[in-house]
């Protein structure tokens, strides 16, 4: 029996759908106040939902009854500075609870981390699975939470747990809506005027789900894999999206000093309104950083070819049109 945590989220829902379409009947966890995504409504007969927060070890143990495989997609994500400590605590403690139970029960796990936990390469080099984030020099609460959660999985592996880790780059897909990476498309549609000078990796959500399923079935263990289709400069990808949306492309370069002003203004406005800032310090500075990810390891490990990024951009843009 298969369990998916975080199945009410963007990636988790796509993964659950992929598993069901392969003929599986699965179990998915959700919080008491979570809403089952519309993407999964057609598959209610193949999915059993259980209420089990990863912070509740007792409920989690009940959810794992009879389970042999776990896909861990659950995570707390926030850009609010006030949420940094609770986000780190929640993600790390929740992962630790799951790791402890999977180790005890002999359950195989595919754990979802992020390229945010991978770290940086030297200028001109590709970032690979061998790079590791330096927590002493990192201020991004999300990245720290992902790194420390990943360390809990490595602890479990050292204690005998059968597990593999995936580190996706920016995940794109129609089902994201206007949340998360969907904000990129919504902002460009609404008339984005500026682009940044950085480069980052992108991947289709369906590809991430396929990779996770393939890894689970492969028997590969004690490894981490970067899951990223293509590296693109913002200066190139924003105009491409604008073209699919039939809107004017961003034409002004946002220089680093401008981004510094932007995140400070967004932080102030977020304090006034109580809402998450549109841009935070970490994401503003990341917009000018070049990060190129090497996806050769996962392609070789499971003989996988990624969907061309332009196809994903076009599909998501059609939703916004």
UniProtKB/TrEMBL annotation:
Q: What stretches pass through the bilayer?
A: none
What SUPFAM superfamilies does UniProt report for this protein, alphabetically?
A: NAD(P)-binding Rossmann-fold domains (SSF51735)
> Which is a Gene Ontology cellular component entry for this protein?
cytoplasm
Q: Origin organism of this chain? A: Mucilaginibacter pallidiroseus
Q: InterPro entries in the record, alphabetically?
A: Epimerase_deHydtase (IPR001509), NAD(P)-bd_dom_sf (IPR036291), NAD(P)-dependent_oxidoreduct (IPR051783)
Instruction: Give the signal peptide as a residue range, or say none if absent.
Output: none
What sequence ranges are listed for the domain NAD-dependent epimerase/dehydratase? 2-219
Q: What is this protein called?
A: SDR family NAD(P)-dependent oxidoreductase
Domain of life, per UniProt, equals Bacteria
């Amino acid at each position: 029996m298969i369990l998916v945590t975080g199945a009410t989220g963007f990636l988790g829902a796509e993964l659950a759908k992929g598993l069901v379409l392969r003929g599986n009947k699965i179990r998915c966890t959700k919080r008491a106040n979570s809403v089952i995504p519309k993407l999964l409504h057609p598959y209610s007969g193949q999915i059993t939902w259980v209420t089990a927060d990863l912070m509740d070890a007792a409920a989690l143990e009940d959810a794992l009854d009879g389970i042999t495989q776990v896909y861990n997609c659950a995570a707390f994500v926030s850009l609010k500075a006030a949420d940094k400590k609770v986000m780190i605590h929640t993600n790390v403690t929740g992962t630790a609870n799951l790791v402890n139970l999977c180790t005890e029960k002999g359950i195989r796990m595919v754990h979802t981390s992020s390229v945010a936990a991978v770290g940086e390469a030297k200028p001109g080099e590709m970032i690979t699975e061998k790079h590791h984030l330096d927590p002493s020099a990192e201020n991004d609460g999300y990245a720290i939470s992902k790194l420390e959660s990943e360390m809990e999985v490595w602890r479990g592996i050292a204690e005998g747990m059968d597990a593999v880790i995936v580190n996706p780059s920016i995940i794109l897909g129609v089902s994201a809506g206007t949340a998360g990476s969907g904000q990129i498309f919504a902002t460009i549609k609404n008339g984005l005027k500026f682009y940044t000078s950085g480069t980052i990796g992108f991947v289709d959500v369906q590809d991430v789900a396929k990779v996770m399923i393939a890894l689970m079935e492969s028997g590969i263990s004690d490894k981490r894999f970067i899951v990223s289709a293509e590296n693109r400069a913002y200066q190139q990808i924003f105009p491409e999206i604008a073209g699919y949306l039939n809107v004017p492309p961003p034409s002004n370069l946002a220089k680093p000093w401008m981004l510094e002003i932007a995140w400070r203004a967004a932080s102030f406005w977020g304090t006034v309104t109580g809402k998450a800032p549109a841009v935070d310090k970490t994401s503003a500075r990341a917009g000018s950083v070049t990060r190129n990810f090497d996806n050769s390891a996962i392609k070789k490990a499971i003989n996988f070819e990624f969907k061309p990024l332009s196809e994903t951009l076009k599909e998501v843009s059609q939703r916004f049109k």
